[in-house]
Structure prediction request, 115 residues.
Amino acid sequence: VTRRGEFDFTMRRADILKYTANMGEVLQQARMVPNIVPGSGGKVDGFRFVAIQPGSIYEKLGFKPMDIIKRVNGEDVNSPTKAMELYQALKSETRIQLTVERNGREENFKYDIPD
Prediction:
């Protein structure tokens, strides 16, 4: 992963395939919980990092504890099923944009993946 700016990165396709091949290992590098909207009766609005292992792929991708991933390429991440669908779709994308809430502000993380 190469960082070009605060929220702008480039990744190699081979790295994406490597990280997506071993889901169990990747999931152990961070802990996430659903971000429940207060007073909504349990509506999920993204997933919040509560812990990130130092040196992990999540840290390399620019994430920090308490960041909330809200959208992937414009699609809301509002259930574990949706999160997994988007995760699988990322394997073939050449550009990924994540909307991440950090410290109350939404930021757009951009990842270019040249083949």
About this structure: The chain has four helices and eight strands. The helical segments are 13-21, 23-27, 57-60, 80-89.
